[in-house]
Amino acid sequence: MDDIAAWLSSTLKQLRQQRGWSLAQAAEKTGVSKAMLGQIERNESSPTVATLWKIATGLNVPLSRFITTPGSERPVYDAQQQAMVVTPLFPYDPVLRFDMFSITLAPGAQSDSSPHEQGVIEHVIVLTGELSLCVEGQWHTLSAGEAWRFIADVPHSYANHSAITTVFQSLIHYPSSTV
Fold first, then answer.
1. Contact, 22 vs 12, CB < 8 A?
2. Which of 1, 2, 75, 100 is 20 to 30 A from residue 81's alpha carbon, by CA?
């Protein structure tokens, strides 16, 4: 986790500086406070997955850019002490424009996601347990073996309302104008 936190910190700072943005400008573009962005850049705070998504969307980069470190086979991003663990399965593919993750949700865990870049599509496949997926205020319950595809440029949430751990995969496809 230390390697990923350091990578996240340096990657955020590098991307912000490449754009010539101050912390205040980055906060405006991402919807994440200037104070939080500064703490992340100084490696003083690890953002939640939802916050990391806001940063990636505001910077117009794939989420895996922050959590896939060079030379690491299977990095794991776990900012919520095992409530939601995100493991990239494939690094971002610039030709096919997708990220693919394995996500583990602890019993009772919920992650709320702000809208992604316009045109982003998510494909969710439940491997074990039961996933509650909310898209535009409408909840859907998916069991092991079931899948759902949705436009992810709207608010959406993932929740595990069961007593057992839920594992699902998420393939995120970015439109050609993104990343």
1. no
2. 100
State pLDDT tens for residues 107-125: 999 988 888 889 999 999 9
Residue carrying structure tokens 């759902």: 148
3-state secondary structure of 159: strand
CATH topology of domain 1-67: 434 Repressor (Amino-terminal Domain) (1.10.260)
The whole-model pTM stands at 0.81
Separation CA 142–CA 52 (nearest Å): 25
- Domain 84-173 fold: Jelly Rolls (2.60.120)
CA distances from 22 to 11, 29, 36, 68, 135 (A): 15, 11, 13, 25, 33
Q: Which of 106, 115, 96 is nearest to 174 (CA)?
A: 96
